[in-house]
Amino acid sequence: MSPMARAGTVLGVLALVTPFAVGGVGAVQGVARPAAREVTTFTDPDITESSGLVRLPGPDGLLVTTNDSGDSGRVFVVDPRTGDTVGTTTYDLEPRDVEALAPGGPDHPREVWVGDVGDNLAVRDDVAVWRVPVGRGDRTASPTRYPLTLPGGPADVESLATDPATGRLVLVTKGFFGGRVLLAPARLRADRPNRVREIGTALPIATDAAFTDDGRFLVVRGYGRAVVYSWPDLEGVGGLRLPAQDQGEAVATTPGGTLLLSSEGVRAPVLEVVLPARLRTAMQPPAAPDPSAAPGDAAPAGPGRGSDAGRGTGLVAGGAALLVAGAATIALVRRRRGR
Question: What is d(CA 322, CA 324) in angstroms, rounded to the nearest whole number?
Fold first, then answer.
C-alpha cells in the first residue's frame, strides 16, 4: 500500500470516529438507519446539483432547491406530486458558491434565504446571504445582499437554517473534526458586514441543517448520518444513519416530523425518512408539571441526555477514538520516515 493510500485509510478511520467524538455527539445513542420512501424525482434537467432544500408552507408542499456552485443565480420551485419545476426565480446577483437554502422566516413565508457561503479553501471574506421570493411561475428578483463575517476567519459553510420562532439565521461550518454552529444577528444590515457568533458545535462534515416546525430542535446532516440537537442549548438528542445517496447535501423537515433529503445529480430523488421511535419519543414536548406533586418528588437525574454521566461517557469514548486515530497517524509518519 502506498503512503498516499495509507494516509487515505487513516483519514477514513477519522471520518468514521469523529462523528461520535466531536461536537457533543459522543453521548448520542443509536445509529439506526430507518427506511426511506421516495417522495418525488426532480425531472428538470437544469437541476443538476441540489444543494439546498426548503418545503414551503401550504397544502401543496412545494419544494424549493438550488444548484451548487457553477450555476447562475436561480432557485427552482418543484411540485412534489410530479417532480416538475413549476417556478423559477432568477436574481441578478452573481453568486460565487451557493451551498444552502433556508426558509424566509415567520414574516416571509413565500421567500427563501440563499446562502452564498461555500468556501472549500477557506479564503473568502465575502460570504453573504440574500432573501428571494419564490412560488409558482417564473420571476426575476433584485434581492438585498447581506454580507457576513465569520468568527475566527474564513470557513467552509454548507448548512443554513432559520429559527421559526425568531427568524434568525443559523449556519454550521463543514469542519472535518467537527462543525461550529453560528448565529447571525437578529437584524441583518446591507451596508456593512454582519458578524455572526459561535454558539456551539455539531457533527463533522455537515452538509445542511433545518429546524423542526416547532423550533425546539435543529437537525444537522452529513453525507451518511444526521444528528438532532435541542435548541437553543444544542444538546445531542439522538442520531440516525441516512439512506445512501450520490452526494446528500440537503435536508428539510415536514409538519409531520419527517425528514426530506435531496442529493446532487440529474433526476435525483427526494427521499422521506421517518425518525426512529426512540428519537420521536425523546422529542416529545415536556409533560406539564403535576400541581398535586409534593416538592422533592422528582426523580434524580440518571446518566441520560444532559446529565454529567452521559456527557462524560461521550467524552471518554470520543477521546479513545481520537487516540486510536492519532496512533495510526503517528505510525504512518514513522513508517514513511523509515523508508
Answer: 5
